[in-house]
Structure formats: structure tokens, C-alpha cells
Recover the amino acids of this structure.
């Protein structure tokens, strides 16, 4: 993991808004993301039951498409939050920090578009 | 669910290869699919831990891309098995059965391509 | 190109339904495909004009999304026609021909899903 | 088109860097984009020739996958340039401008991921 920092890393004496320690954009919507990911976990368990019960292939595929969409939607939400916080902060800081964070975001977007 | 039949439905006296009761192509690889789906369920749980631990957004997105690819790969495997069994049988049977199964497979492919 | 045959290859004395010479499923809708591909070519020219005219990036991206969807839709149509003809014929022929054509179709579907 | 401005709109007396008039990130790579789009236009023409010549469906699908990837790659390049210029400038400007541009970029990313 190349996570530059997380809440646990922010010690007492640290300055909270140094560019190398981006705010996590999703923090305020944490419960919402956890709820959606629990539902996705439930979909993964549901798929196992379908296979165990010899469910018709096409119905399993329909369920996989729904789960993929749910996962994609979580990713787009996280990316949106990330741009509104980490990327915005880095852009305001400018310099290498900005270049690094923009490249990192672009790479994540490319992985999403291609997956 | 519009599953036309499943193993539990195939009673003692039934003729096994009537077109309306397609073989499930994935049956022989059931354990393999279950193993992959359990791993996907584990990835969904891992994502929840990442959110709970305030993991950096980009690392969560990387994990989501990996999980999406794993799910897509299961879907392509199921589709491949489906074409080699249900679609092949339906094509051999011909008539309405063939037309129905081909349309159903095309619709499932379109959902996968678009999701 | 690994095209196994095309209409021009089907000589007078040939048996029309030998497995190694699949019917082209899209032949009857050729004009429809040509019309859609000409429109896609026009979209590609439109994108060049947008870049030349310094159009705002987001508007170019919107146009690219529309063009990608149009292209995807042609691919899904061709695949549907292909399954209704070449794959169906191969399934009826059975044996190696069926296995080869099914594998080929599965590979094409995987490329579409992943692109 | 909702393009907020383009080169032709920038009149003599206008202040060049007002937030409502974002720099176009791709300007410096314009020739590169035009070259890639001309190749994509050529691919669209090639597809028409393939249909006219009754090329085997699978070969046409392979060509469509390649063209889709080329188009996606142009989109990811434009998005990257856009984030490095328009989004960065908007983030530095802050306020409504930043919120508007970030939302606009997120929407474009969602369209790309879903297309």
C-alpha cells in the first residue's frame, strides 16, 4: 500500500494540513460506504448460494452485472470525494505535491475505465 | 428468477435432454466457481476494513478495480460454459428453443459489455 | 485475417453448409451496418474539428462517450448476428468445428467486455 | 454544447485567467490528438470496407475492440490534461468555480467508466 497517511498516522504534534497528508474525502460518508460494501458482500454470498443451488447460468450472470454496477458506483463515489478533497488540496498546494496527486488520480481513473 | 430448470427439478422419470431443460454448463467446475466467489466475498470484506481503517482513497480504488476484474472473469467463465452447453443444445434442437436461448445469451452479453 | 471464408469464396459447385464455411450472419443487415459505421466515421471527423476549434475538453469527452457507445452497439449487433448464424451452424455440425467456433466467439466476447 | 469558452471567445480586452475561462489542457498536444483521431477515422473507414467485402464477423469484432481501445486512450489523455489544467486552476480559484469544475469532471469520468 502506498497510502501516504491515514488518520491513525496523524500524531498529536503534526500539522494537519501539510500537503503530504491529504484529508480523506470519504470520511464524512464512511457509514454510507460501509453500508453499500456490506450489501456487495451479501451479493457475493448470494452468488455462492446460486451456484450451490444449480441456478440457471443466465440468472447468475444477471446478478453479477448488478454487483459490478454496485461496485462501480462505490468507486465513482470515492473518486468524486477524492477529487473534492485530496486533489483539490494538492492543486492548491501546487508544485510536486500537485503533480504527484494528479498523476495518481489519473492512473486510478484509467484503471477504472479499463476494468 | 426465470431459471428454466435446475438439477433439483430433474425428477427420476424425466427425459434428461429435452430442450426446455438445458444442462448447466458450469456444473463440472462448480467447486472452482465457489472458490473464486468466496475470494470475491473476502475482497468485499477487505474493502470494509479499508474504509473502517481510513485507508487512502486511491488504495481502496485499486482494490475495487482488482475485485471488478475478478468478478468479470467469473462472468466470462460462466458465459463460456453456458455457450458450450445450453446454447449448443438449443442450437441443435433448433426452432423456438434455439431462438429464445440465443436471444437470452445475447442480452446477457450486452449487459456484461455495458456494465 | 483468419476469416475462414466469405461470400465471394462460395463457388458454384460448393456445398453451401459445410461447417468450415459459415454463413455471415450480418449479410442481410449489411446496409444498416454500413450506415452506422459511416455515422461513426463522421463522429471521428467531428472530434478532429472540435480539437482544431479548441473546444472545451469536457464537450470532447462527452462526444467520445457517445461514439464509444455507438461502436459498442455495432459490436453487440454483429455478435448477435454471428451467434444466430455461424455459432448456431457450428453447434449443429458438432465436433471440432463447434468447439473451435464457440471458443472463438467466447474470446471475442471477452475482448469486448474488457475493452 | 456547454463549453464555457474557447480561443475564439477570448476578446482583446478580456482578462485571460479568470476562472470562468479555463485554459485548455490539451492545446500543447493538439497535433498528437489530431493524428490519433485521424487514425481512428481511418479505422472507421476500414470497418466499412470489411463489411462491404463480407469479412468474417469475428475479424470485424477484433477491429472494433482495437478501435474502442484507441478511442478510450484519447479520452484518458484528454481527461489527464483537463485535470492538470482546468481542474487545477479551478481548485486554486476555489469557491463555486471549483465546485462546478470538479462536479463536471466527475460526471465526465462516470460517463467514461460506464461507456
Amino acid at each position: 500500500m502506498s497510502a501516504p497517511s491515514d488518520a491513525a498516522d496523524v500524531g498529536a504534534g503534526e500539522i494537519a494540513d501539510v500537503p503530504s497528508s491529504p484529508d480523506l474525502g470519504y470520511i464524512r460518508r464512511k457509514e454510507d460506504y460501509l453500508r453499500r460494501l456490506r450489501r456487495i458482500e451479501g451479493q457475493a454470498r448470494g452468488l455462492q448460494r446460486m451456484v450451490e443451488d444449480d441456478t440457471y447460468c443466465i440468472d447468475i450472470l444477471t446478478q453479477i452485472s448488478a454487483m459490478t454496477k454496485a461496485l462501480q458506483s462505490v468507486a465513482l463515489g470515492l473518486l468524486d470525494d477524492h477529487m473534492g478533497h485530496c486533489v483539490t488540496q494538492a492543486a492548491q498546494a501546487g508544485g510536486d505535491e500537485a503533480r504527484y496527486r494528479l498523476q495518481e488520480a489519473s492512473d486510478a481513473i484509467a484503471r477504472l475505465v479499463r476494468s
Summary: Residues 1-21 of chain D have pLDDT under 50 and may be disordered. The first helix of chain D runs from residue 30 to 52. Helices of chain D lie at 30-52, 57-93, 95-114.
